[in-house]
C-alpha cells in the first residue's frame, strides 16, 4: 500500500516538472518573438503639416521599448516610448515623404511598409476645366472593402462635395467647371483603415467657359387626341444647364425662337400649332447659368440641334374605287428606312390599324358612308415612333342608280349631245 502511494507521488512530481518546463518554454517563445510593426490607418495633410495615424500594437509579453517614426527623405523623425500612442504630427512638410514606422522591443525590431502622404497639384488651362494630378500611395494602406479614390471640391467655402470617384490606381482627373466664376479648392481622399487619407488642399480661380452639349432631338410628333405638336430631346449632360430654347423653321426657311423651357431635366415641349398646312421643322438649343461677354449679355448657349421634321398627311376620297387615297411626307431627322402604319376610325369612331406601308402612300377601302379620321404612325424598331397630323375625309359609298334612260340626243357642232336621267 505504501509502495503504491509512493509510486503515485513520484508520478505527480514528474508531471509537475513537465508542466513547469512547458510553461518555461512557452514563456521563452513569447519573449523571443519580435513584435510586428504597426499597421497604418491613414496619413492626413493638415495645412502644412502631416498627421500620421497607425494601429497600436498588442504586447502580451510586455517587451515594447519604442516606436521610431522615420521617412526615407528625413531619416529618424521621432521616438515614442508609449505603446498606446497612435498618431504623430510631422510639421512644416511641403513635399512628398515616404514614411515608415519601426517598432523596437526587448528582442529586436521590425519595420513596417512605406506609405506616402498624398500631394495634389492643380493646373488651370483657362478653358473651363481644372486638371488634377497626385501621387498614388501604397496599396497596403487601402481599405480592403474599397478600391476607390474620391475627388472632392470645396464650394462654397467650408462645404466639401464629392464630385467623382475613381479606381485607386488612377492619379489624374479633369473636372469640367459648372460654376460661372468662383475660387475652387480641391482635395484627394483615399479610404484607409479606420480613417481616410487626405491630400493637401489646392485651388484657383475658375470660370465656366464651356457651353452645354448640343441637344439631340429624339422625336417630333402630333398628339392624335389634342392635335398639339410634341418635341422630345435628351437631357443635357452638363449639370449647370439652365434650360432649352425651342426653334421652328418659318416660311422663309429660317429657324426662329418660339419658346423657352427651364430646367435641365425638362426635355419635353408640347404646344398648339396649325398642323394642316404642311410639315413642321424644329430644333433645340441648351443654355447654362452663365452670361456671355456680349452686349447685351446673354446666357451661354449651345449650337442648335439637328432639325427634325414632322409627317404631313393628306387624303381624298376616290368615288369610283370606293376608297380613300392617302399620301404623306416622310419623317426627317432619323437615318435609315422606316415603316408606316395607317390608322383610321371605324363606324363606331374607334381607331383601327388598316395596314403597314414601306412607302408614303396607301389606299383604305370603305363599305359605309361617313366622315372618317386618319393618322400615320412612323416607326423604326421598338425605340422610335411618331404620329402625323390627323385628317378627316368624307366618304360616300351610295349604290348604283335604280334607273337610267336617255332623255334626248342632238347634234351640236361636231359632236352629239346626249342627255340622260338617273
Describe the structure.
By secondary structure, the protein is mostly beta strands. The chain is 7% helix and 50% strand. Strands 3, 4, 6, 7 and 8 form a 5-stranded antiparallel beta sheet that branches. Strands 11, 12, 14, 15 and 16 form a 5-stranded antiparallel beta sheet that branches. Strand 14 and strand 15 form a beta hairpin. It starts with a helix and ends with a strand. The model is unreliable at 1-13 and 17-31 (pLDDT under 50).
Record keyword descriptors for this entry:
422 residues, mainly beta, 5-stranded antiparallel beta sheet, 1 helix
Total beta strand runs? 34
Main β-sheet, in a few words?
A: 5 strands, antiparallel
Number of helices: 1
Structural class: mainly beta
Shape: elongated
Distance between the termini: 151 Å
Q: Specify Rg, calculated over alpha carbons.
A: 42 Å
Please give the share of residues in helix: under 10%
**Fraction of residues in β-strands:** over 45%
Contiguous uncertain segments of 5+ residues: 1-13, 17-31
What's the average pLDDT? 88
Amino acid at each position: 500500500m505504501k509502495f503504491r502511494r509512493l509510486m503515485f507521488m513520484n508520478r505527480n512530481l514528474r508531471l509537475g516538472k513537465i508542466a513547469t518546463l512547458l510553461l518555461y518554454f512557452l514563456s521563452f517563445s513569447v519573449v523571443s518573438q519580435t513584435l510586428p510593426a504597426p499597421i497604418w490607418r491613414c496619413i492626413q495633410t493638415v495645412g502644412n503639416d502631416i498627421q500620421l495615424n497607425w494601429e497600436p500594437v498588442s504586447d502580451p509579453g510586455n517587451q515594447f521599448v519604442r516606436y521610431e517614426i522615420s521617412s526615407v527623405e528625413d531619416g529618424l523623425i521621432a521616438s515614442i516610448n508609449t505603446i498606446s500612442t497612435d498618431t504623430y504630427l510631422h510639421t512644416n512638410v511641403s513635399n512628398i515623404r515616404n514614411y515608415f514606422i519601426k517598432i523596437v522591443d526587448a528582442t529586436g525590431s521590425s519595420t513596417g511598409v512605406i506609405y506616402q502622404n498624398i500631394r495634389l497639384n492643380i493646373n488651370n488651362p483657362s478653358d473651363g476645366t481644372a486638371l488634377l494630378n497626385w501621387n498614388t500611395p501604397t496599396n497596403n494602406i487601402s481599405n480592403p472593402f474599397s478600391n476607390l479614390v474620391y475627388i472632392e471640391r470645396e464650394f462654397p467655402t467650408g462645404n466639401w462635395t464629392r464630385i467623382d470617384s475613381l479606381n485607386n490606381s488612377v492619379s489624374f482627373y479633369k473636372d469640367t467647371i459648372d460654376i460661372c466664376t468662383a475660387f475652387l479648392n480641391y482635395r484627394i481622399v483615399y479610404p484607409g483603415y479606420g480613417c481616410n487619407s487626405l491630400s493637401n488642399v489646392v485651388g484657383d480661380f475658375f470660370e465656366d467657359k464651356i457651353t452645354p452639349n448640343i441637344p439631340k432631338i429624339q422625336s417630333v410628333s402630333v398628339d392624335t387626341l389634342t392635335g398639339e405638336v410634341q418635341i422630345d430631346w435628351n437631357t443635357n449632360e452638363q449639370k449647370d444647364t439652365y434650360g432649352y430654347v425651342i426653334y421652328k423653321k418659318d416660311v422663309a426657311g429660317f429657324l426662329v425662337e418660339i419658346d423657352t423651357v427651364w430646367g435641365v431635366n425638362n426635355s419635353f415641349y408640347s404646344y398648339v400649332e396649325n398642323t394642316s398646312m404642311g410639315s413642321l421643322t424644329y430644333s433645340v438649343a441648351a443654355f447654362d447659368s452663365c452670361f456671355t461677354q456680349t452686349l447685351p449679355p446673354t446666357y451661354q448657349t449651345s449650337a442648335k440641334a439637328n432639325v427634325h421634321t414632322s409627317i404631313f398627311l393628306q387624303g381624298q376620297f376616290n368615288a369610283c374605287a370606293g376608297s380613300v387615297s392617302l399620301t404623306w411626307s416622310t419623317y426627317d431627322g432619323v437615318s435609315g428606312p422606316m415603316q408606316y402604319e395607317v390608322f383610321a376610325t371605324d363606324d363606331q369612331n374607334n381607331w383601327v390599324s388598316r395596314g403597314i406601308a414601306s412607302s408614303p402612300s396607301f389606299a383604305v377601302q370603305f363599305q359605309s358612308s361617313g366622315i372618317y379620321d386618319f393618322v400615320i404612325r412612323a416607326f423604326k424598331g421598338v425605340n422610335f415612333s411618331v404620329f402625323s397630323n390627323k385628317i378627316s375625309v368624307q366618304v360616300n359609298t351610295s349604290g348604283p342608280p335604280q334607273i337610267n334612260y336617255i332623255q334626248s340626243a342632238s347634234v351640236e357642232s361636231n359632236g352629239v349631245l346626249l342627255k340622260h336621267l338617273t
